[in-house]
Amino acid sequence: MIGIKKIMVMAVMAFSGMTAANAQCGIENKAFKEGEFLYYDLYFNWKFVWVKVGTASMNTVGSKYNGKKAYKTSLITRGNNKLDKVFTMRDTLVSYCDTELSPLYFRKGALEGKRYYVDELWYSYPNGNCHLKQHRLEHTGHHFYKESEYKDCVYDMMSIFLRARNFDASKFKKGQNIPMPISDAKHLSNSWLKYRGKETFKMEGTNSKYRCLVFSFIERENGKNHELIRFYITDDANHIPMRLDMFLSFGSAKAFLKGYTGVRNPITSKVN
After folding, report:
1. Residue 227: pLDDT above 80?
2. Which of 79, 41, 52, 83 minimizes the C-alpha distance to 203?
């Protein structure tokens, strides 16, 4: 099913593979720095009324992976007792990327409904390709293992989020599609971002307004295109996600930015 796991909103690497990874799958990071924390309130449409059903937090810290400097980014979503009556949600996502945002490792531990499962991805870059070692621990206790290799870069739902924050949207045209191949522990999705232009968005619970760039994350499945998330990011160098509209299998949900600390650049998108 499509869950809130895709809110934001989405590796064993030897030293010899570092150059190929940077050349193929990296991007210069200008949007965030170590010590950034973002906080969100989650809402669910319940009988045509938007009800607060939980919180989410995302933080990025400096770390090391296999002895090399890396960014460690964590996303934690927690439903409250109102959501628990409909759908239990306890997700923890962790991503390691190198300093040029090439993905190294991804883990998701999720309690969704009555199912608890774990996804893991390890990335390496032999001969300039992107190699994935994949592991899924099913809620039944069954372990699923798979290895895949691609000529093009592949990302997970966290590393693609960090990469997308560093896009230069001034080069995009309204309606443009940007390919975004994303893998979990079992499948590679045929997915992309669609740039929808600019809007002014009022931060929930305040009078503050921000100029935002608007994108949709779209996935093609069973011959049909499905918009999973529409998100609004600040039209400045930080590209902070301000709002996310999520189209879930069990209804509609929204995430609104509640606060932030440790941002890298001035918030020039604020209009008042």
Report:
1. yes
2. 41
